[in-house]
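#lab-general

N.A. 3:47 PM
ok so I finally got the sequence cleaned up, no stray characters, all 316 residues accounted for. can someone with queue access submit it? mine expired

B.Y. 3:52 PM
send it over

N.A. 3:53 PM
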Amino acid sequence: MTAAVVGLSHSPLIGKNDPAPDVVAAVDAAVDEARAFVRAFDPELVVLYAPDHYNGFFYKEMPPFCLATEAHAVGDFGSSAGPLSVDAKAAQALARGVLDRGVDLTVSARMTVDHGFTQPLEVLFGGIANVPVVPVFVNGVATPLGPVSRIRALGTAVGEAAAELDRRVLFVASGGLSHDPPVPVLEGAPPRVADALIEGHPPTPEQRARGEERVIQAGRDYAAGSTRMIPLSPEWDNLVLDTLADRGRLPEVDSWTVDWMAAEGGGSAHEVRTWVAAFASLAATGAYRMTSRFYTPVPEWIAGFAVATARQETGR
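B.Y. 4:20 PM
back already:
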């Protein structure tokens, strides 16, 4: 098996509330480098770790993580709608392998996903159905959140199970880094909002449009400084990247507490759990090195925006 990682921040505000042209150009160059890395690696399977934003997972049942054997995208914020090209046989093998390694994994036979999943597939592969994929939802929004050590255990188990497939596997992490967008919370929510967060009633097109416009306006307010959202944290973001870059330091994430992560990086900084899972998967296959690393804070996208690639020192 040979393995590699691409970590990629996402934002529904890309193309809708962009920063200065030089910042966009720098991000585009980093993304182009990641695409070239993916083309050179030529994956036979992508394991995609991504969060959800109350489009597929709701408080009626909220697992800490879930692997899909089939997945469909809702098409929020202009992202693609429709089925992902899920490799069901590989997904079932990975699910069995993870469970056999003592990690309590939830499995979905029909997962609903949003831009957190579709954006990296569109950016890296040109579409949501262009590569065989195993989608793995990692909760980074809905509290209570479990310890990060369990996310590392998940990633390790997936990596060990993937090694048994004897294929070129690319682990993709979608989300973060520091990140405090206006995501609704259940505690203290009005009855109508609470019911939607629990039951997951699909919004009408008009409701979805209004909700998306609120997020776009929040990005404008955030960039203008007229908001109470937690500021982006380049210092914390680079600590995260430094930790992931060093296989020997990866176990340090076990000491990251839920409260510390939120205080340092914002309420949705927990999306970096997808990065932890992906790098733990790669670490399970042997020594690795980070081959590229890009970071810039982008208030207009409400994201500490990062792009990173890594691969095994030697295949096995």
